[in-house]
Amino acid sequence: MPSYRRRNKYLIPLQSVVLLVKNGIHGSHFQTFQETLRMSTPLVFTLLFCHLASAMVVHDFNQVELCKNSLYMGTPPRGFTSPTLKKICQFYADKPRYVTLYDPHDRIPVYSAYTFKKTEGDRRVDYPWMYEPQLAEVDGNGNMLPFPTGYLHMKFEDSQAVLDDYSDVVLYERGHLNPDQHQSTPHDRAATYTLTNVVPQIREFNIGPWREHEERIRVRLNNFCRGTAFIVTGVTTTGHAIHRNNQRRVGIPEDVWSAYCCTDYDRNAPHDVRTLFPAHAALAKNAKEGNSIHEMTVQELESFLIGHINVDKNLQIFYDNCRAPSPLPVYLQHTI
């Protein structure tokens, strides 16, 4: 016999509320969810909120209200349809910092999406590396945690990369998708040091062309983006992987790509800069040689990705191609 809570003349099965949350509130479930909330007692609502607040590996990034703040118009990239991918709301110190679409098979992120914070670009490397407990269990408060100095249960190692996967690897470094130099506060920077935000990058590529690109984008957005800049950075793979103890562990990216969207930018900037707004993208090979950065339009990047990763033909990195949600004043239209 299911548990019920009574309000006025309505009877609400509490198990149904929990199932709605666990399975994700979407599609035809949403109307039912709204009606359930309208009829629920404060106790049911409190239980529901607590469950939502602890579920940081989520069905939808919008499931946790502040997660969508990392996405342009609150909308994640469209076209990533694989049911095995995990959506992580990256929580640190009880606050969502950015979002990651994670591949538990390759044990690397497909992409991380974040808001750019203006910064001087100084680089900190003394933050502890962390992992995401929610990939293995639903207990806890949803925060990423530092790797313990002792034993880490096998269930965590099965669900994601761990420090040992990188310890004896000479060719590759842990390359951030959301880099610390694109964040400003200590907590936002610390939150980038989770292995769910990094991929194996060839050392020469990581410290050379890709770091130079991250710095170039930092300076560009610092100087010419007046509002909020949204960045999505991801990878393509072709099946190569780091092995440990004769087991396939961590996928190795073939390419690294990135795109930004800033609709509120300096329209008095030089023409060669204005052409890089409101959105622009970049692509490079994760290789020792032939790894130069190719800047391109976001649509050109999307065309490339449709042929190189598991997405459908409707792939769209930014909602409505990063068009400003309202038309520009007539006196500004000539400056684009």
TrEMBL record:
Classification via Pfam families: Endonuclease_NS (PF01223)
Q: Which residues form the ENPP1-3/EXOG-like endonuclease/phosphodiesterase domain?
A: 95-317
Q: Which SUPFAM superfamilies match?
A: His-Me finger endonucleases
Question: SMART domains, alphabetically?
Answer: Endonuclease_NS, NUC
Domain DNA/RNA non-specific endonuclease/pyrophosphatase/phosphodiesterase: start-end pairs = 94-311
Q: Which GO terms describe its molecular function?
A: hydrolase activity; metal ion binding; nucleic acid binding
Report the PANTHER family cross-referenced here.
ENDONUCLEASE DOMAIN-CONTAINING 1 PROTEIN ENDOD1 (PTHR21472), ENDONUCLEASE DOMAIN-CONTAINING 1 PROTEIN-LIKE (PTHR21472:SF17)
Q: What is this protein called?
A: DNA/RNA non-specific endonuclease domain-containing protein
